[in-house]
Structure formats: structure tokens, C-alpha cells
């Protein structure tokens, strides 16, 4: 197997790679701006940024290395919800999400030399209704502060989620089934 590079500092993505059997990989995080052209759909946005990250990461890698990049965003009514700047912004986001559904999109790019494959995954997440006290209690854990949409489905944020329609791991930041199918096209077979 060619050497794999994860171009992400996300501990969740690192954990997911290990869970699916990729234990020998390097982490190289390129400097990129997460900007994109106007008028793109949510899927097009995350695919665009994922490709931009892969292009930047390629400069840190040899042509033989397989580079994995990803970009995950939360969209409510096609409006992007990023990482909250402070606790009050986290409360505004969680209040907007409660009792409704939203979409989590992840763009994934696998690159080896000049060969580039980009795809995306979308998952619908349905939040239960929650009181302001519950939301403030969750925010007090600190968990929402470094996560798009101000929640982590793999932690206490799961207590706000009523159901999911789609890939759970996508909501964590890396759709592992899609990634495994993409890696197979590069000769990396995980099963």
C-alpha cells in the first residue's frame, strides 16, 4: 500500500481512519483559506474546499503518496453554520437547530500525484426540541466550541439528535464508506 497522508488536524478524522484500519499515516496540514466562489450549492462548496486543500497538501507530499482531505459544513436552510466564535453564538446556532432538521455535507478528495478524485456526502440531522437551559448546559461542556454547527454528534451533542438520515460518520467529519470506495480506486482495499 502506498503511504497515506491525512491533510487534516481534526482528531475525529484521525480517529476514524484508525477505526477503519488505516493506522500508518502521516498528518500534514496545509495552510489554506476556506473561501469559495459565490453561487455554489452546499455539496459544491465542500467539494471545492476539499480540492483546494488537496492541491495545497500536494505541495507537502511526494507524487507517490496518497493524500486525503475533507471539508465538513453544516447547512440550515442552505445557510452555512460555521464554528461558533463564542458561547452566545453557539447558543444562537443551537437554538436555530433545535426542533428542526439540517444538512451536514462533507467533501472528500483523494489525490495521488496528478490523479484527483473528489466526492461528497450529505446527511440529514434531526434535532429534538430543547430548552434554553439544556442548550446552555451543553455549551458549558465546551464541546460545541470547535465544531461546525456548534455540536458534536459523537459526544454529548448526541443527546440533542433525534435521528439521522444518512452516514453517521459523515456528521463526525469523514464519510468512511465513501472514502473506502474512493481509496479502492487508488488500489487501497480496506477489507
Q: Topology, pairings included?
A:
Layout: E1 4-6, H1 11-19, E2 25-27, H2 42-58, E3 66-76, E4 79-81, H3 87-97, E5 101-112, E6 115-127, H4 132-140, E7 161-165, H5 168-172, H6 176-184
Parallel strand pairs: 1-2, 1-3
Antiparallel strand pairs: 3-4, 3-5, 5-6, 6-7
What is this entry, summarized?
The protein has 191 residues and is α/β, with parallel strands linked by helices. Helix content is 31%, strand content 26%. It has helices at residues 11-19, 42-58, 87-97, 132-140, 168-172, 176-184; strands at residues 4-6, 25-27, 66-76, 79-81, 101-112, 115-127, 161-165.
Explain what you see:
This protein has 191 residues and is of the alpha/beta class. It has a single domain, classed as Maf protein (Alpha-Beta Complex), CATH 3.90.950.10. The chain has helices spanning 11-19, 42-58, 87-97, 132-140, 168-172, 176-184; strands spanning 4-6, 25-27, 66-76, 79-81, 101-112, 115-127, 161-165. Strands 1, 2, 3, 4, 5, 6 and 7 form a seven-stranded mixed sheet that branches. Strand 3 (66-76) and strand 4 (79-81) form a beta hairpin. Helix 3 (87-97) crosses helix 4 (132-140).
Tag the structure with descriptive keywords.
191 residues; alpha/beta; Maf protein; seven-stranded mixed beta sheet; 26% strand
Task: Return the average pLDDT rounded to an integer.
Answer: 96
Uncertain regions spanning at least 5 consecutive residues: none
Name of the CATH class: Alpha Beta
Q: Biggest sheet, open or closed, and with what strands and sense? A: 7 strands, mixed
Order of helices and strands: EHEHEEHEEHEHH
Query: Which shape, going by the Cα principal axes?
Result: elongated
Question: What is the fold named in CATH at topology level?
Answer: Maf protein
Our Rg estimate from Cα atoms comes to: 17 Å
Distance between the termini: 13 Å
Assembly type: single chain
Number of helical runs?
Answer: 6
Amino acid at each position: 500500500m502506498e503511504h497515506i497522508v491525512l491533510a487534516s488536524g481534526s482528531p475525529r478524522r484521525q480517529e476514524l481512519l484508525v477505526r477503519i484500519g488505516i493506522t500508518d499515516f502521516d498528518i500534514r496540514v496545509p495552510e489554506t483559506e476556506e473561501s469559495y466562489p459565490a453561487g455554489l450549492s452546499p455539496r459544491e462548496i465542500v467539494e471545492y474546499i476539499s480540492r483546494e486543500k488537496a492541491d495545497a497538501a500536494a505541495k507537502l507530499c511526494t507524487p507517490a503518496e496518497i493524500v486525503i482531505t475533507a471539508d465538513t459544513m453544516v447547512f440550515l436552510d442552505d445557510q452555512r453554520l460555521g464554528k461558533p466564535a463564542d458561547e452566545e453564538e453557539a447558543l444562537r446556532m443551537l437554538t436555530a437547530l433545535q426542533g428542526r432538521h439540517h444538512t451536514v455535507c462533507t467533501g472528500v478528495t483523494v489525490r495521488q500525484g496528478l490523479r484527483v478524485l473528489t466526492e461528497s456526502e450529505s446527511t440529514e440531522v434531526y434535532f429534538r426540541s430543547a430548552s434554553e437551559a439544556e442548550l446552555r448546559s451543553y455549551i458549558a461542556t465546551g464541546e460545541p466550541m470547535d465544531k461546525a454547527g456548534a455540536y458534536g454528534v459523537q459526544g454529548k451533542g448526541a443527546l440533542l439528535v433525534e435521528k439521522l438520515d444518512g452516514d453517521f460518520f459523515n456528521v463526525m467529519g469523514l464519510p468512511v464508506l465513501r472514502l473506502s470506495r474512493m481509496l479502492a480506486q487508488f488500489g487501497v482495499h480496506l477489507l
